[in-house]
Amino acid sequence: MEQLTELKAAKTLLKRGVEIILPAPFYLRILGRKTVKFTLKTPCIESQIAISEAFLQTGVFLKEDEISIQKALELLATKGIRISEIIAMAVRNETKINWRTRRLAGWLRRSINTEEMSYLFSLLVAFSGVQDFTNTIRLIQEVRITKPMNLSPEEKTS
């Protein structure tokens, strides 16, 4: 019963998304608005492909036991901007990194810390539906209708 409740909660979150509340930029604070809300929802397939491609282009492939403080700081310095652009792509549901995405990525870098950035990235991974994609691939492999069939009887008679 608990698993069913968790599954329903996860599906509800995926449809509604998760709100991200950021401090408003200067020009909006002048007008009296203190915060701005964004909603991170499940990206469309085209955006998921673009996000996956952008992440693979970063070249970050780590094993859990090989990260050190020096390596983490090096990755933050070299790949931090690109990771923030990937998260901005997901928030905007974009397929390319354009000026709007870069502007949002810069705003994210100035507004949130690395813990919140990590949380957003983990949400992005959870919302991406990679498990659904792998299940689809497995189903397609099993249900190949063009696969040649062996129609001869399996038991040999004398």
Your description of this structure?
It is a single chain. This protein is mainly α and 158 residues long. The chain has a domain at 44-129. The chain has helices at 2-16, 26-30, 45-58, 69-92, 99-111, 114-127, 130-142, and strands spanning 18-23, 35-40. It has a two-stranded antiparallel ribbon with strand order 1-2. It is elongated.
Topology:
Elements: H1 2-16, E1 18-23, H2 26-30, E2 35-40, H3 45-58, H4 69-92, H5 99-111, H6 114-127, H7 130-142
Antiparallel strand pairs: 1-2
Helix pairs in contact: 3-4, 4-5, 4-6
What portion of the residues fall into strands of 2 or more residues? Answer: 5-15%
Main beta-sheet annotation: 2 strands, antiparallel
What does the average pLDDT come to? 77
Give the number of DSSP strands: 2
Helix share, percent: 55-70%
Radius of gyration: 22 Å
Cα distance, first to last residue? 55 Å
The secondary-structure element order is HEHEHHHHH
* Largest sheet: spatial strand order: 1-2
Indicate the structural class: mainly alpha
Which stretches are low in confidence, meaning pLDDT under 50 for 5 or more residues running? Answer: none
Shape: elongated
